[in-house]
Specification:
Blueprint (H helix, E strand, L loop, with lengths): L1 H39 L3 H19 L4 H22 L3 H18 L2
Helix pairs in contact: 1-2, 1-4, 2-3, 2-4, 3-4
Keywords: Signal
Pfam family, one: SMBP
InterPro entries: SmbP (IPR031877)
Length: 111
C-alpha cells in the first residue's frame, strides 16, 4: 500500500512540475507578445513592463528545460534583456524587434 501511495505522489509531483513549466512558458509568451504589440504602437514604457514580466517567466521555465528547449529559452532571455535595455534607452523600434525575436524563441521552445 505504501508503494502505491508513493507512486501516486511521485506521479503527482511530476505532473505539477510539468504544469509549472508550461505555465511559465505560456505567461512568457503572452507578455512577450504584448511587448511586441505595444512596441509596434510606440508605447515604450508598456513594452518595458511586459518584457520584464516575460523575462521572469522565461528564466523560471529555463531552470527545468533541457536540450533545444533550454537553448531557445536562453536565446529568448537574451532578446528580452536587450528589449528591456533598448526600451529603457527609448529605442522602441529596436526593443520591439528583440521582443519579436523572443516570441519566436519561446514558441520554438515548445516544439
Amino acid at each position: 500500500m505504501k508503494k502505491l501511495a508513493l507512486l501516486f505522489i511521485g506521479l503527482f509531483l511530476v505532473n505539477v512540475t510539468a504544469f509549472a513549466d508550461d505555465h511559465h512558458i505560456d505567461v512568457a509568451l503572452e507578455h512577450a507578445t504584448a511587448a511586441t504589440i505595444y512596441g509596434k504602437n510606440g508605447h515604450t514604457s508598456v513594452l518595458l513592463e511586459h518584457a520584464k514580466i516575460a523575462l521572469e517567466h522565461v528564466l523560471a521555465a529555463s531552470l527545468k528545460a533541457q536540450g533545444v528547449s533550454k537553448s531557445h529559452l536562453e536565446s529568448a532571455a537574451e532578446d528580452l534583456e536587450e528589449a528591456i535595455s533598448q526600451s529603457e534607452s527609448g529605442h522602441v523600434g529596436t526593443a520591439t524587434r528583440h521582443a519579436r525575436a523572443a516570441v519566436g524563441h519561446i514558441k520554438n521552445s515548445e516544439k
